[in-house]
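Q: Start with the shorter request: fold the first protein.
A: Done. Sequence, then structure:
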Amino acid sequence: MRRIEERGEVTFGQAIKDYIQGWVSYGGRSTRAGYWWAQLAVVLYFVIGSLLSLALVTTVHVLGIIVLCIFGLSGIFLGIASTGLAFRRYRDVGFKTVPIIIWEICAFIPGLNGIIGIASFVFTLLPTDQFVAEKENWLVRGKDSVDETQPTAAAQPQLTKAAPAATIASPSLPTVVFYPDGREQEIK
């Protein structure tokens, strides 16, 4: 299992690679392009497989049944991988983990699954961090919080030299620590 952290532009090949390697990875993020390239590959796989199995069932019955069984088993794999991909996509939009789990469970409730399917489609079309709020809450990440999907090194303060206020040369510049939540601290 590999943690998928898609950032920036994702090619078709990279999206397929991330989809297959992260088939049970529910952590990390997947971009819009990564999500939709993988979905396109799944649709193409099933269209080609359905046409192939239909052609074989009408001519060579045994071979057609074998192909149907292979596609049935691969459908289980692709269903699990698509669930992981959806988790990563929802997290990329800004949702936290617990609401995503509740959302996926509610998708199995008759009557709600149609509404949830439409909303899920809309969520996958949204850009990265669309639902990130000013302050963190139970549903979405906040701008002032550390991203739960990022490695802990990203949460560490960064040391930089502060620029002088005037053009007068200073023998030593103060050191300023910038924290992820926006705070600054000068170290003397």
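Q: Next, the second protein, separately.
A: Sequence, then structure:
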Amino acid sequence: MAAPVRQQVGAGAGAGAEEPAELRAAAWCLVQGADGGPVRFGALFRARRAIVVFVRHFLCYACKEYVEDLAKIPKDFLQDANVRLIVIGQSSYHHIKPFCNLTRYPHEMYVDPDLALYKIFGMKRGEAATTSAQSPHVKSNLLSGSIKSIWRAMTSPAFDFQGDPAQQGGTLILGPGSEVNFLHLDKNRLDHAPINTVLQLAGVKTVNFTNKPQEEVFEEIALCIRSSRAAPPKASSGRLFHWS
């Protein structure tokens, strides 16, 4: 098991610190599982650390390809580190099973159709920046990806966007308890946090998604972690997003 890299965010960091108001509010929100049953968000990270990935919408080609790489993380890597991997979308729960089947994603997935958590965590709307480097997890270009998304919309049982297309996502490492260990807010559809960086920060063994030598992969992960420390995340307001 890899040792977690301590990179805490917010007023919740540190023993005895008051729980951030945003996290307290988020913990009471309800998400829905594939059967439509409600689950309290706070229950997902109360007992152990959780990597929580918020995606834009289930028809987004970039999100689909990112989740396809999340699907490649072996369950035993997560179990050995005692970490949960959770994807949260913002469509109806009816789209969860088809999306999991499409991406072969075997881990936990829920939806937040009212966008309550997206709003609490300050996730962005619209394409705030279009100059992000190409995501290592997205293989399609804008044209081919958009065509694939439109085709999936046309051939799905319910012709809809499977979520608000203007909403961006993000990644957090939460728990156990009120700890907020990492936060990344996506600026646009290609601005996902590199998966291996997130795994390393959570103490989970990394995965070689490419044909590169393992040593080169480790160097790229280390560079991403150094860059994230040099440029801490910002938000318009809220203690949760202030680095301690």
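Q: Describe the second briefly.
A: The chain has one domain: 21-125+136-241. The helical segments are 21-28, 61-70, 75-81, 96-103, 116-120, 142-155, 195-202, 214-230.
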